[in-house]
Amino acid sequence: MTYKIEMHSHIKGASSDSLIDPNTYMFELTKTGYHGILVTDHYDEEELECKGVESQLDKQKKWLDGYYRMRYEGEKHNIKVYLGCEYSCETVNQVIDSSDVHLSLIGLHENLFLENIIKLHLSLDELKKLSLKYGFLIIQNHPYRYGLDKLDLSEVDGYEIVNTKESNHIIIPDYNERIQKETISYDLINIGGGDCHNLNDIGKCGILTEKLPKDVMELKDILIKKEYQIIGI
Given Cys at both, which of 8, 165, 181, 220 links 107, Cβ 3.0 to 4.6 Å? Predict the structure, then answer.
């Protein structure tokens, strides 16, 4: 059996620009034949500051609520839910860029947020050090979108080389093709994702696996071992 896993998702209430609540999300995933989903809500100051709570710990808990609600609905729909995040990295190679580089962090435990180890405003170098210490992957999402360059091969574990969010392609129609051509000859951990914010983003992308990961650590291992295919290639 082949399993479908969405690798780039945003949940209403956790990501302020998402319109998809967990129950609706699960209904659409079931309808389109998915078995798992990596929750990658935006992780940046704007998202944490808009949660309406004061303490840093309460902000982290409020941000994690999107994942918790998805996990609850996933149990009812028999869909695996994995914790990730889309980290807004403002500082790359000591250069501060207000446009931010978006990075999927894969292989995280929720305690890394609850203990404030994954802090806001970390540079790429600081994130890399944490990834080596705690064993998570760093994947650059949608390179070349909105004029952002791809990071150097030495700075990430791989790239999102298929992104099917409709509004992205209206602005820059060929950025998927560009990153695919530039990375095809390298041994990288590349992924595909729907970048789902709206209903019409669901069911178009992700990965196919022969085994359904029991948790995010197994998902990470499947990516490292290249035991998957990208939907859309």
Answer: 220
